[in-house]
Amino acid sequence: MDDFIEVLQSCLLFDGIAPKDVRAMLGCLGGRVVAFDRDEVIFPEDSKAENVGIVLTGAAQVVRNDFFGNRTIQARVEPGELFAEAFACAEVARLPVSVEGVKPGKAMIIRLRRIIETCSSACDFHSRMVMNLLKAMAARNLQLNRKLEITSQRTTREKLLAYLTTQARQADSNTFTIPFDRQGLADYLCVERSALSAEIGKLRREGVLESDRSKFTLM
């Protein structure tokens, strides 16, 4: 576990907690580390919503598939970020989404009850973790609201430009790299890949942007 202390400290769940205390907490929380490959399902849809995950290495994404087989990427999860926390806290019976690997890596899985309930040792960090969990859920809510603002745009062009503008602001630069390939970006924006590729080509010809795979420059 010592190999992951630094990345765990970057997680909102452990915000403000010293490394030595993180080590002590892990024993109480009983977290287990699982390895995953690209496209491997970490949490399957319809599984019990009782666990919280933290990406340690690699990357994952939260995916929803509708009745007709349409795939939507709800969020990308990088090292130090939580996943499935909202569903566990809401006590939904089954996960309405799946969590899948994007880059091979490892994740820590923790039972939600081990976080929010005081253990037999009466550890004093549980109240701090509950507050941190609330902050993490608020941050996720803001992230989903930003996605809603983007996907609620009327056209593929408007959705794409809204997303790229957001990425430029986060990078504080007009040149930036997004975390998706073309298919992933299409799934995130809820558009067809062919329409997205056509729109990127049109914007390049118009001199609005330059692109090289996942690297973009807004002109």
Structure write-up:
This protein has 219 residues and is of the alpha+beta class. It has eight helices and nine strands. Strands 1, 2, 3, 4, 5 and 6 form a six-stranded antiparallel sheet that branches. A hairpin with a 2-residue loop joins strand 8 and strand 9 (215-218). Helix 5 (126-151) packs across helix 6 (156-171). The protein is elongated, with a radius of gyration of 19 Å. The termini are far apart. The model has no long low-confidence stretch (mean pLDDT 90).
List keywords for this structure.
9 strands, alpha+beta, 8 helices, six-stranded antiparallel β-sheet, elongated, three-stranded antiparallel β-sheet, 219 residues
Topology readout:
Elements: H1 5-9, H2 19-29, E1 32-36, E2 41-43, E3 51-65, E4 71-77, E5 82-83, H3 85-89, E6 98-111, H4 112-116, H5 126-151, H6 156-171, E7 175-177, H7 182-189, H8 193-205, E8 209-212, E9 215-218
Antiparallel strand pairs: 1-6, 2-6, 3-4, 3-5, 3-6, 7-9, 8-9
Helix pairs in contact: 5-6
